[in-house]
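# nightly structure sweep
# worker-07 picked up a monomer target from the shared queue
# config: single-sequence mode, recycle default, output format = structure tokens
# input follows
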Amino acid sequence: MLSNSATRPENLNKIVEKFKRHDNPKQKYEQLLWYAKKLTPMTQVAKTEENKVLGCVSQVYITSNLEQGKLFYQGDSDAQLIKGLVAFLIEGLNGLTPQEIINLTPDFIEETGLQVSLTPSRANGFLNIFKKMQQQAFLFNA
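# output follows
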């Protein structure tokens, strides 16, 4: 399984390193809000029960498309910080193969230091979003 920074995909590693540079929780929140602003809007049509992330207090949706063997995600949330977490994961995982995404372990989430800054429900939501993305990767890998 891909778990440490030496074997982690480059895009994901860059994002984790950005968050690790900030000791102050406020700076981490600002970074998340910056990612939220960058997120491409998701159509209302894609916001279905099938695409909904379960276990999140906020409304969160994730879709995925396979293009030339690589997965590309789109997502949205009704909460800005969670939208930032969605954007973080999309930027970190887009362009990987389904198997690469399946092989990732969620330890990178802890490495960012965000779990200390986030409420327990948001930290749990972050993990649930990642698991939803892995589930979608699994469907394309079958």
